[in-house]
Design brief:
- The protein has one domain: Cytochrome c-like domain (Cytochrome Bc1 Complex, Chain D, domain 2), CATH 1.10.760.
- The protein is built from five helices and no strands.
Length: 126
């Protein structure tokens, strides 16, 4: 029982460390997206960057997506679709709940995800 308790604590410390690896203070501008991701980049900037930062680097209002916690094997594309559609209760970050995002179609979310996945690959997360 004690071992399970310790493992749980270590797990939550690990998750917290991953989600708090904020690169928003970086002065490095986000790279320009290739043309196949430019619409997704524009949609991201218009609908997501207010909280998640330009280049998905995060802000004090939302986590960075340039983190192993958001890699495809941990947060698949479906998780992003559901987050936009339903919102997300805070569970491994200190930014509060994410509200659902109205006015963004499923097709537009798919383009945003494409951009996020591209920028993750550019930063060694795949």
């Amino acid at each position: 029982m004690r071992r399970l308790y310790l493992l749980s604590i270590l797990f939550f410390i690990y998750i917290s460390a991953c989600s708090n690896s904020d690169t928003s203070g970086s002065d490095t501008p986000a790279p320009a997206a290739p043309s196949e991701f430019s619409e997704g980049e524009q949609l991201f900037n218009n609908n997501c960057a207010g909280c998640h930062g330009k280049g998905a680097k995060g802000t004090d209002r939302g986590p960075t997506f340039i983190s192993k916690i958001y890699e495809p094997s941990h947060h698949g594309d479906g998780a992003f679709h559901m987050a936009v559609k339903r919102g997300v209760r805070a569970h491994h970050w200190n930014f509060g709940n994410m509200p659902k995002i109205n006015g963004v179609s499923e097709e537009e979310v798919t383009k945003i995800i494409g951009y996020i996945r591209w920028i993750q690959r550019e930063n060694g997360i795949s």
